[in-house]
Amino acid sequence: MAALQARIAAMQARTLGARTLPTDPAVAPLLPGGALRSGVAYAAPGSLALAMLLLAGPSAAGAWVGVVGIPEFGAEAAAELGVALDRLVLVPSPGEHWLSVTAQLAEVLPVVLVRPPARGASPSETARLASRLRQRDATLLVAGEWSGAEATLTATGGSWAGIGTGWGYLAARELDVVTTVREVRTRHRVRIETGFRPFVPAAPAAPVRPRPVAVPAMEAAE
Amino acid sequence: MTGTTGTMTERCLVLWCPDWPVRAAAAEADLDPAAPLALVEHGVVHACSAAARAAGVQRGLKVREAQSRCASLTVLPLEPAVDARRFEPVLAALEAGIPTVQVVRPGLVVIRAAGPARFFGGEESAAGEALHLLAEAGVPDARAGVADGPFTAEQAARATDAGRTIRVVPAGASADFLAPLPVSVLGMPALVGLLARLGVRTLGAFAALPEASVRDRFGPEGEAAHRVAAGLDPRRVVARVVPADRDRRQAFEPPLERIDQIAFGLKRTAEAFLEALAGDLLVCTALTVELVPERGAPHRRTWLHPRSFTPLDVIDRVRWQLAAAELAAPVAEVVLHPEAVDEAAHHEQGLWGGGPGERIHHALSRVQSLLGHEAVLTAQPSGGRLAADRTVLAPWGEQRTPPRPPGAPWPGRLPGFVPTAVLGDRPPVVVQDPAGRDVAVDDRDAISGPPALLVAPGRPATRIEGWAGPWPLEERWWDPAAAVRLHRMQVACADGSAWLLARDATGWWAEARYD
Q1: Which of A175, B283, B329, B417 is the most buried (most CB within 10 A)?
Q2: Count of CB atoms within 10 A of residue A117's CB?
Q3: Rounded distance between C-alpha atoms, residue A39 and residue A131, angstroms
């Protein structure tokens, strides 16, 4: 039902002539319009897993994605969350050229994830990049703050399941996300499970590793 | 019948150097080839010298048996590489006089006879000239045979003796020449064994069988052998093509130190290097750049290209190599060597461009020229237990095979979440128990106290709410350089972060974070 709603929302978002990108159903409800739009920027500070989930939708649908300025980007985790590694390009340490590298990648890749350095970008640089995105119909995901973002998805915290004091392992997590669209804040919670059950006796012998299931976000009370 | 027109077979000149492997091995070991020698493979005699043969040694004999027949026998291992290497100068001397030589194996070559026969005035004199060239190259006892097709010509060469080193089988007389020879000369043991049991002992008898029956009974291979036995060898002589020297060198006098000077000085050479290839309708797909400094050892590196090199790509590779090489002295010479070439037709752009892949490649190549070859990476899954081992990164445009198979089970790797942030620089952390003491792990993998507080660099101290482990990990203990011995622990903290911590002899450090 929720997936259906997300699809309806994605279709409705075409009203202003904006193209939408295939979006992972787990994060679709967090986004205004229910889908990633091309030609704009989104900010997702606080959680790399959330950024990977945002990348996963377009990547699984066949798009090339680029990651700029994140040296610790865990490609294996990205693959588990649905990012296709054979269409993933990493520029871990662009240094001072991060903005021009991002712009060059946005020329050819439909989705680029970037983490700006601490000093960030000046308003004029941001505006230039925004016009490039509009021209090229590329989507920018920023793992940090970004002025002029279509929406800011801030991971404010969360909880872990499956781990005790001296036993268990990290098996599932709940991520609290605050979506800010033009000063309007909504809260959601995303649940990610690994589906890995090593202690169930009836489990198959080969360790099957399904990709983490992100249950559709639910609206949490303010 | 002197040409190839209208006939199935062409006149061939075969030059045979008897006992070539023995001669090559003797020259390699500095022995006299006239002494009794035998080359041995898997404990069985593979070839022997004339003196050894006279003493009763023959091919296929066990070493012990051969030594008992000829007590003074010198036994050497069979080395095909030596045969080929020793034959190369002989071949070069032959090609200086008669080009278009096909090498069947070291010691046996076949030449299309028509050309040399016309040039030297007859097949016999052409064969004599070829033997003369071989004698000058140090093979005085070579033999020559001229006949229709390579097979008959080889048999003709083998039918010679020391007194009469050339045998010419007239055109059309091949079948008569081959008829009395035993079927074993076909060199097909399975077929020969079968024919012997059927009472067919000579090539003539085999050739007399009806062609359709041979095809039905022995299949396509038997049919081909039947044609050969009838003197209708359909094989053609394909002369070897000597690869041209495509290396380009650019010497700098005086030697240059600055990268941009070298890159500028190399521009013309890089263009000429690729133009020479393009002239032969080739493109370069792998390039070896050799930087020769004024003093010290040269620096070589091979660069792959996902498509084909352009002059700018070549210059970029040289720049990157210069930046990484840290040469002690200024560069006196740069050598460009095409490691792999491909036909240009495979790399032509389509009429409407190369599609999205081409555009992506161009943009990423631009980023590479800005930041360096290693700055743009692609990721591949790899096997391993540590988080950093489970992905292998390769520069854009290069293929890298995973050093460890990703599909293997890798017992000891962690279940559950895969960490999203792999911390390659191993930042040290502090893990304390409720009493404020550092948490330690003893020799029996037991923890000294429950972890309660985590202090990671650049972050405020946080309370540990959940923890699991420590799990011991010991890898490659047999190799001190690559050995890994540590304990790992997952912790979930009050601020919502979760970490994969590791402790080895240096203390606790963060291996990865679950961002």
Answers
A1: B417
A2: 13
A3: 8
CB B461 within 8 A of CB B494: no
Of A108, A167, A194, the CB nearest to B468: A167
**A window 36-75, beta carbon within 8 A of B:** 47-49, 52, 64, 71-75
Is any Cβ of chain B less than 8 angstroms from the Cβ of A213?
no
DSSP β-ladder status, B282-293 and B331-343: antiparallel
Closest approach of A128 to chain B, Cα-based (Å): 19
Q: Which of B383, B365, B362 is nearest to B373 (CA)?
A: B365
Q: Could you give the domains of chain B?
A: 248-347 (3.30.1490.100), 376-407 (no CATH), 421-513 (no CATH)
What is the distance between the alpha carbons of residues B166 and A184, in angstroms, rounded to a whole number? 100
Assess whether pLDDT exceeds 60 at residue B5: no
Which pLDDT score, from 0 to 100, does residue B511 have? 92
What ipTM, to 2 d.p.? 0.82
Strands in B462-475's sheet, in edge-to-edge order, are B421-422, B507-513, B498-504, B484-493, B462-475, B453-455, B430-432
In Å, how far is B483's CA from the nearest CA of chain A? 23
Which residues in chain A touch residue B513, judged by CB atoms under 8 angstroms apart? 72
pLDDT of residue B145: 92
pLDDT in tens, B63-78: 888 888 888 888 888 8
Residue B250 corresponds to which tokens in the numbers above?
Answer: 């650019």
